[in-house]
Amino acid sequence: KSQGQNPREIATAIAAALAGHPALDSVEVAGPGFINLRLSARFLADCATAQGSDPMMGLREVPRRMVIDFGGPNVAKPLHVGHLRSLVIGESLRRILAGLGHHVVSDVHLGDWGLQMGMLVAEIRRRWPELSCFATPPRPPASLPFDMADLTLLYPAAAAACREDPDRMAEARADTAALQSGEPGHRMLWSAMRALSLAAQTRDFATIGAHFDLLLGESDVQPLIPGMIEDLVERGIAIPSDGALIVEVAAETDARPMPPLLLAKSDGAALYATTDLATILERVQRFPDLAAIVYVVDQRQSLHFEQVFRAAARAGYAPGVTLTFAGFGTVNGPDGKPYKTRQGGVAQLADLLDEAIGKAAERLAPRADLDDDARARLARTIGIAAVKFADLSSYRTSGYVFDPERLVSFEGRTGPYVQYACVRIASILERAAAEGHAPGAI
Question: Which domains does the chain have, with CATH numbers?
Answer without folding.
Answer: 7-52 (3.30.1360.70), 65-108+225-331 (3.40.50.620), 115-208 (no CATH), 349-434 (no CATH)
